[in-house]
Amino acid sequence: MFRFEREQMVFEISGVRVGGQPGENPTVVIGSIFYRGxxxxxxxxxxxKEAAQxxxxxxxxxxxxxxxxxxxxxxxxxxxNARKRLEFAxxxxxxxxLIDYINDEAAVSALEAARELGIxxxxxxxxxxxxxKGHVYQKAREVGLRAGVALTYSSRAVISYKERVRLLESLxxxxxxxxxxxxxxxxxxxDLVTLGLACxxxxxxxxxxxxxxxxxxxNAIAMWRSLKQRKDRVLMAACSAVANALPVAVGADxxxxxxxxxxxxxxxxxxxxxxxxxxxxxxxxxxxxxxxxRFKISRF
Length: 300
Hints:
Blueprint: E1 10-13, E2 16-19, E3 28-33, H1 49-66, E4 70-76, H2 79-92, E5 97-101, H3 104-116, E6 123-128, H4 134-143, E7 147-151, H5 161-177, E8 182-186, H6 192-208, E9 213-215, H7 219-222, H8 225-230, H9 233-249, E10 254-259, H10 263-283, H11 293-296
Parallel strand pairs: 3-4, 3-10, 4-5, 5-6, 6-7, 7-8, 8-9, 9-10
Antiparallel strand pairs: 1-2
Helix pairs in contact: 1-10, 2-3, 3-4, 5-6, 9-10
């Protein structure tokens, strides 16, 4: 097992620790709700509370069983539904919440709602990228946002892990200037072939900067059309589990694994890697806490 020479940052967001040397803290899993096709909410923001709460409860239960900390990625597609979805999420769980916005209007509305709901310290904006407009940064500063995701996306970065890393030279200072102090780096997965580039970028980012780093590995499978056309749930689950566990093996601190409805098989797959590296930590003379996957996965 490797260790990064650069000191690794660890941020605590609403009780969840993310970052550090591989094995130091369990991988943070991030599941999404209200994404396109999710029937627990319509475009107006009306939420099927019973169905959505059941999904969240199951997600939290699985994470607790295997010892992985978790966050909830709340997709806000329009300014009109941002407040309703965030208000529901804030009441339904104590997890940190990622504001996953589709357009600038949704981002601004969601940030305003987070402040008004008194949950600004629990939220991260997902995400800031090289195309993020100035008024989004301005709103982040205005509402007192302290945590956010830096997405290393550009047309050139899609085909280059080096370009992903280079983009941070300008992106990180802009986020800090807006008051965002707790920065998580998402190295961008768009399809299967970019998963390897994202994993290499994770290693490079942690080596150079020391920030908590991860990616949305589920995109590697979600965009695999021929696999989806086979409609083989077992094969799909197996491929998804491997794709989501791979970044953790190279040091990822968090993984956006896709819909929370997939938590039952995604989360244990990710926990296996964290549990394995927990033993390496013990041999190096550091004992993980009893809640670590090293001690919980065998009882799952």
